[in-house]
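User: Second chain of the day. Same drill as before.
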Amino acid sequence: MKEALQGKTVETVFFVRASNCPDGAWFRVHATPVCDKFGTLHGAIAVFHDITDARKASRQRDALSALITHDLKNHLIGESRLLQLLIDGKLGPLNEEQRDLLIRVERDSKRQFQMTKNLVEIFSYDLRSEVLQFVDTDITSLVQECAAEFLPSAQESRITLETDYASPLQVVSADVNSLRHVLMNLLGNSIKFTPEGGCIKIQTHNLNQEISISVSDTGPGIAEADLQMLFADVWPVSSRQHAPEST
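Assistant: Same format as last time:
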């Protein structure tokens, strides 16, 4: 309401618990300034919409998707093991052409496994508590941990994974799971869309009293027409071939 009384239109979602609602409830609130025909601000109005049931239904869908994705991940693990047996000649001799083809299939299978693993992580995150828990967090250690998880995939795809950390030690108050979720998603997309021989760079910067984390790569990037939908849950990507690199 404070922002609406300053002339701004605001929409947000928040979670509350009350004595008559011990499990909590989710609300979407839309606040807008009230002006006369001359544009003079006289006050503000806020509309609250209870979206608890809608969020419960969404979480049920996410739970089903998480189960399906988890089963798919297990299938890909079995497929990868079988391909490795074939490549190693354990199931019979191969000529060079057959072996090269199987290596390419195995590489693609590993990429699919990594994407599926990312989906499992995303669904698991969404199904956990959605209330942020802020604790003192070592940003450098968190970034190193995420980078180390993707290093084997980067090496397999012949992609250079570079890190550049600002000093001194960077400790901030943050929700660790949320930060890890964002970084893993960014790195997963970079691995997916960066061509062989490309480079992914993770950097941290000190900006006065703030810390920024950037992930950039030499992939095709996101088309300008798609940028306005960047924070939508799902949208059809029109093209990834316009930009020389992505950030």
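The CA atoms of residues 92 and 198 lie 35 Å apart.

User: Great, on to the next one.
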